[in-house]
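Our consortium's second objective concerns turning raw sequence data into structural hypotheses that experimental partners can test. To show how far this objective has progressed, the report includes one record in full. It was chosen at random from the queue rather than selected for favorable results. The single chain below, 408 residues long, was entered without modification.
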Amino acid sequence: MAKEKIVLAYSGGLDTSVILTWLKENYDAEVIAVCCDAGQDDDFDAVNKKALDTGASTSHVIDIREEFLTDFVWPTLKAGAVYENDYLLGTSMARPLMAKKLVEIAEKEGAGFIAHGCTGKGNDQVRFESTVHALNPAIRIIAPWRIWDLKSREDCLDYAAKHSIPVAQSREKIYSRDQNLWHISHEGGNLENPWNEHLDDIHVMSVPIEKAPDKPSYIEIDFEKGIPVGLNGKKTAPVALLTELNRIGGENGVGTIDIVENRLVGMKSRGVYETPGGTILYKALAALEKLIFDRDTLNYKNTVALKYAQLVYDGLWYTPLREAISAFVDHIQEPVTGTVRVKLYKGSAVPAAAKSDNALYSEEFATFGEDDVYNQKDAEGFINLFSLPMKIRAIRKNNAAGKALRTR
C-alpha cells in the first residue's frame, strides 16, 4: 500500500523546518515541501536543499511574484482596501495564492493532506484553510501548532537543536517575520509589549526616518485603468515596477507603520510593517481618482473599500462577494488613466501633481480668475433649491412659535 502524502507549506524558517521533521516522526507519510517565491529575500536553492536534507521526499519552489501582483495586489490596490486605516494587507493577499498553489501540487501529487505552520492564535490559519476548503474540500488539514506539545518558539528552538535542524532564529532574534514583494511584517519579541518602542534594527526594506536623505526625491507613476504600468515615463513590468518603488521608497523611509490590530480570531496583536512601494502606489492612485471620479462614485468606492479590506484580511478571497466588489471596482476604474508625480521625503509620500485626459477637473470652471464658462448668478437659484428643506423647516418652526405666542 502506497504511503499517504502530505504537502507542507514550507519556508525554511524555524516553524516549518521543525514541522517537516515533526511530520516525519508522527505520520507514516511522504512530506512534499512547497515554497512559494513571493519576493521574499531568500536563497531558494538553499531552501530547496534544506527541505530535502531534512526529510522531504520532494521539494517545489514556485515563482508566484507576477501572479501575486497582477491577480491579488492590483485588484486590492484598485479597491483602495486598507484594513483598519493602516494595514496594506501584504500577508493577507499572499496567503490565498499560496494556498491555491498548495492545492494544485496536492492534486498533482495525489496528496490527501496539506500542512501549514500557522499558529492557532493567528489569521493565517483561517486564510490558508478557507482557501483549501473553497478550492478542494476533499483535502484534509494538518496544523501542528494546534495539536503538538511545543508551546512556544523557544520550544521550537530546543526541538531544532535536539534534531540538528539548522535555523537562523535565536532567543535574542526571535521576531516572526513574513516578507513578500509587497511588504515585510515583524511580530513577537519585544514588540509584544506595546509600551516598547520598536528598535531601528528591525528595518529590512526601509531605513528609519531619521536616516532618510535630507533632500526630497520625486517619482512619476503612470496608471492605466487603475493599474500601475510605468515609472518616470517608461513602461515597466509589474515586478520591476514594484521592486524599484520599494528601493526608492525604502531609501526615503516611506511606508513603515507600527500598529495594534484586531485579529480575526478575536485578540489584538502588535506588529511593525514595512510597505514602501505599496504606500507610494496607494497615495498616487488616490490622487488620480480624486481628479477623475465624481463625488458619489468616490464616496461609494470608499465605503466598498472597507468591506473589501475586511474580506481580504479574513481570508475570504474566493467568495462571491469579493468577486462582485472586484467587478464593480474594475468598472469604475475604466477611466482612471493618467500620471501622478509623488514627492518622497523623510517617511512621507505626498502626491505633488497629477494629470489625466479623463479628469473631471476643469481649470476653466474652477479658476478664481475671470472666465466665460460659469455664470456665478446661477448659484443663487441652486442655493435656494438646495436649502429649501431647511427653509421650510424654519418657516414651520417660526409659525409654530408665533401661534404659541398668540394663544397665551
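The partners drew two points from this record. Residues 183-293+336-361 form a domain with the Argininosuccinate synthetase, chain A, domain 2 fold (CATH 3.90.1260.10). The chain is about 45% helix and 20% strand. Both points have been shared with the crystallography group to help prioritize constructs.
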